[in-house]
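Task card 7
Instruction: Convert sequence to structure tokens.
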Amino acid sequence: MKSATLKDKDRQILNLIVENYLKVGKPVSSGLLSQKKRILDSPATLRTIMVKLEDMGFLHQPHTSAGRIPTDKGLRFYVNHLFATVLHDGGQTSPFGGEFAQEKGDFDSLLVKASKVLAEQSDNLGFVVSPRISRIQFRYLRFIKVGEDRTLVILVTTFNMVLTEVVKTDIYFSQTELDGASEYVNQNFRGKNLQAIRDHLFRELPTFRRRYELIINKLIAFLKTYFLQEEKEGRIFLQGAARLIDKPELFDMERLKILFQNFEERAKLANLLSEFIALDSVKVLIGSESNVPDIEDCSLILSHYGTRNQVLGSLGILGPKRIPYERIIPLVDCIAKQLSQTISHHS
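Output:
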């Protein structure tokens, strides 16, 4: 049933129930509501409205004699109506000064700092999904052999940040070959990304048949290996896991432990969050809306960051469904904008 069918009084009561539940975490009774100065209705009238809201799926009564708590649908209604006030009240001034600007060139360190600030300011888990290197335009690229089956990729972005990634591959390269590949890439593809290089090499392979066929084939195979690794792993920086573990009454602890300990689950989470990087502003996923069973007891508040010309990744907060949305939504919005400004200032 659409929220438009709710009367003004229904909306007022629903929002009050959600606000009270977010603060104390207990079922809200009609008697408690009638004590609020904003409510002039009798407990009997309030009970009638609450029954209606329960029938519509906005509220749930844990026990027959208990009050009501909001369902995911009730929380969604509350959050949707919250956006208009918390994101359009003239903007929020960053309380973090020049913290991000202190990071000089090391992109991963910058993302770690952002996830740490998110965790500390929210008292929940802060996360930043690293961009896929293959999609980032580069100013300089270098391949370095660090083992028989490992190659280090060093990429200096067009916004003057340094990214590194170790690629495990069965393809043998000498350092001389890697130097030649680096030189070729830098001479011909500066300002492009690795995906553009791969696509070009596929198209132009026949022109390299005689002199460069071996090294070009190896470079194509190397890029294939890297793209598969990048798709499988999906890097995500998490800070503040202990903050969630310290709230056992709000979560299924076994599920959370799996999420933090199992690399594959973290990769799935990173890939999920990457799906939302094209959003215009902040996105809130409540409970089962995330389609990740291990965080059905949680809410995700996320946004994106990037340069003036390119969205790079997503960031946000993972916390209980009882998270203070009114404060957390503008916090995530503010950090996303500050991180984007810091990255843009490097370019």
